[in-house]
């Protein structure tokens, strides 16, 4: 497996993970407002789930910028 395919796969997985964390954070916030919880035993605040999603999206952006840089470099040559 080449490094480009690996980076593309990691980018997709991080993007999917970010949406899962963000969705879970929103659902947990709504459940907490109703007095319930979706993630039992989760000791951190719900905002930590959304923060994790943002961190993953930053990595996705960095990987996408790297791919765009390589594409532009290959077009110049």
What does this structure look like?
This protein is mainly α. The chain has one domain. The protein is built from 2 helices and no strands. Helix 1 packs antiparallel against helix 2. The longest helix has 31 residues.
How many alpha or pi helices? 2
Helix content: over 70%
Please count the beta strands (DSSP E, at least 2 residues each): 0
Mean pLDDT: 87
Distance between the first and last residues' Cα? 24 Å
Strand content: under 5%
Low-confidence stretches: none
Taking Cα atoms only, what radius of gyration do you get, to the nearest Å? 17 Å
Which outline best applies? elongated
Sheet having the most strands? none
Structural class: mainly alpha
Order of helices and strands: HH
What is the domain tally? 1
In short:
This protein has 77 residues and is mainly α. The protein has two helices and no strands.
Topology at a glance:
Blueprint: H1 3-33, H2 46-76
Helix pairs in contact: 1-2
Descriptive terms for the model:
mainly alpha, 0% strand, 2 helices, 77 residues
